[in-house]
Amino acid sequence: MTKQVFSKSALFLRIVFLVSVFLILVIGGFTYQHISNLTDSTKQVVSTYKVNVELEKVISYLKDAENGHRNYILTKDTTHLEPYLTAREKVNESFAELKEIASHNEKQKENLNTLSKYIDALFNNFTNTNAFVENKLTLTEEFKSNFFEEKIIMDSIRQKINEMIELENKQLHEHQKQYQNNLQFTPLFLYLLLLFTLLLIIISYNRINNDFKNIKLFNNQLSIFKEATIQLETIGKHGNWVWHVDTDTFSFSDNLYRVLGEKPGAFKPTLEVFMGYVHPDDKEKLASDVDKMMKNKDLPFTYYRIIKKDGTIRHIKGYGKLLIDPDGDKQVIGNITDISDEIENYLELEERNLELEKNNLELSEFNYVASHDLQEPLRKIQTFISRLEDKEAKNFSSSGLQYLDRINVAATRMRLLIDDLLQFSRTNKPDKEFVFTNLNELLENAKQDVGETILEKEAIITSEKLPTLPVIPFQIQQLFLNLLSNSLKYCKKNTPPVIEITYSKEEAKLNKLIKDTYHTITFSDNGIGFEQKYADQIFELFNRLHNKQNYSGTGVGLSICKKIVDNHSGVIIAHGEPEIGATFTIYLPE
User: Fold this and answer.
1) Which residues share a beta bridge with 506?
2) What value, to the nearest 5°, has the Cα angle with vertex 175 and ends 174 and 181?
3) DSSP string, 4-64
4) Per CATH, which fold does 429-589 belong to?
5) String of b and e for 42-59 (b: at least 16 CB within 10 Å)?
6) What mean pLDDT comes out for the span 503-514?
7) How do residues 218-238 score in pLDDT, each as one tens digit?
8) Nearest Cα residue to 492 out of 449, 544, 528, 516
9) Rounded distance between C-alpha atoms, residue 528 and residue 577, angstroms
10) What angle do CA 127, 130, 135 make, to 5 degrees?
11) CB–CB of 505/553 below 8 Å?
């Protein structure tokens, strides 16, 4: 994902452009170097050619001098000395040329010095030989020795010139070989480099072309967004304004004029004109907020009233924030919203809250009456019933005893109903504090509350280890107590109740569950069960599936369970099968 975003960024295009320019410079550098090498090679060839030509001239001049000198010795004719006499000057000219050409080569400079000594020795020998000829001493041993030495010097000169020519040719060959290697590699390298550069340029062009298409698309989307914004302003009763800090000028949106009850562009957008619409009682506060905005380049939420052109008063909420564009220009972008409807709804809600508080107070008074005023006469009724049963039962007829028993049952059910209603009303209070509590302890406390019933019915209760969770402790204990009581109450006759309590933590799988992970606690029994179609009804207040003659109860217990689970943002689900048993699953969010 990061690579795709980078390949589409402006930085990527800049890098591609810089790399392309760099590669073009590299190609230019290689081309220049290649041309320089070609020029150097040409110079080397020319230099070698000149050296060889001059050396050939030198040996030619010396041969001419040698032949003329020998003809002079044989014929004594001085005309044969002309090549000898001009050879020295020509050799010196060639030597000067050779020294200039070979100045870059130390080896050739040494060879030239040696060759110069040989030539000097040759011409000295010529001079000595001429002296023998002039003195007619050509038959002496000294003349013969001198003449033989001339041949040795001439052979040394030829050998040295051949060495120099061979050295020049060898250096030329090596230089040509190196240049040839470079010549073979450079074109291929430059060609590949050029292809790569073209590829980068094509990629850049394609990216720029795509950007151009995207810009057109974005412009279309911006046009749509602008129109949608205008519509949203109209529907939401918004208006936008911009304070151009550098020029200290304002611009208003069309709907800002409408919020003020004016037509778009009805007046010049200035702060002074706008302040004319502000309610007199709010002008001072708003002016103070605007002064702070001028200093801090920021306008926090501010509330004030305006008087529209038709005289109606509207409540306004304003806000502004500083933005700096890429050119460094500062602008405070602001918004005003007509919140008169929200104010009215708030006042209405506040009135309803007062009514709700009044109702809650009445409910609290009812709870007090139920827990004190109603229970007190009920206790007296049960007390007098007990006394009648103890002292006057023998004086009652069988019908009277039956009536007395029914009164006692009704009073007992009345007490249970009052107790359950009180318990249900307590679960409606949302202000209970959540405390990290070990659920195992709450389960044990619930077991102790129904301990006598467990022993009486020989119930078997197994439970897995429960977690420690943030809960309302007394409510969760009441939840466990009601579920245990429900399983013990609706057990099969002559069959010991078996209650299994399991725990797991799992991902949400039901549509009712909105969190990702839940703590799941399940109560399963082997009781009489129920039809699955009643799975939702059993949690309704005062709803009973069985008649009160066979099973006692008020139909409030499971309603309390659902209310407790709701208070913990959880879900409780029931599943039953007649004569098989019932399962209650509690989902508490992690």
Assistant:
1) 518
2) 90
3) HHHHTSHHHHHHHHHHHHHHHHHHHHHHHHHHHHHHHHHHHHHHHHHHHHHHHHHHHHHHH
4) Heat Shock Protein 90 (3.30.565)
5) eebeebbebbbebbebbb
6) 74
7) 777 777 766 666 666 666 677
8) 528
9) 8
10) 130
11) no
Which alpha helices (DSSP H) does 511-555 contain, by range? none
User: From the centroid of its chain, how far is CA 393?
Assistant: 86
Tell me: pLDDT of 590 over 50: yes
Residue 189 has pLDDT above 70, yes or no: no
Q: Which residues contact residue 430 at a Cβ distance below 8 angstroms, ignoring those fewer than 6 apart?
A: 567
Q: How confident is the model at residue 321 (pLDDT cuts 50, 70, 90)?
A: confident
Block residue for tokens 């926090």: 300
What six digits make up the tokens of 104?
């870059």
| Element (DSSP H or E) covering residue 244 | strand 238-244
Of 212, 211, 158, residue with least CA distance to 7? 211
**Burial grade of 286 (CB within 10 A; 0-12, 13-18, 19 or more):** buried
Each residue's pLDDT tens digit, 308-319: 888 888 888 887
Name the CATH superfamily housing domain 238-338: PAS domain (3.30.450.20)
DSSP string, 81-148: GHHHHHHHHHHHHHHHHHHHHGGG-HHHHHHHHHHHHHHHHHHHHHHHHHHHHHTT-TTSHHHHHHHH
Q: How far apart are CA 136 and CA 481, in angstroms?
A: 158
Please give the single-letter amino acid code of residue 155.
D
Give the chain's end-to-end CA distance (angstroms, integer): 32
Sign of the alpha-carbon dihedral angle for 293, 299, 301, 305: positive
Are 288 and 305 spatial neighbours (Cβ–Cβ below 8 Å)?
Answer: no
| 136 φ/ψ sector (left φ>0, alpha ψ -120 to 50, else beta) | left
| Between 455 and 449, the higher pLDDT residue | 455
Distance CA(225)–CA(231), nearest Å, equals 10
| φ/ψ bin of 248: left (φ > 0), alpha (ψ from -120 to 50), beta (otherwise) | left
Q: Is the pLDDT score of 586 beyond 80?
A: yes
Q: State how far the Cα of 340 lies from the Cα of 338, in Å rounded to an integer.
A: 6
What 3-state DSSP class applies to 556? coil
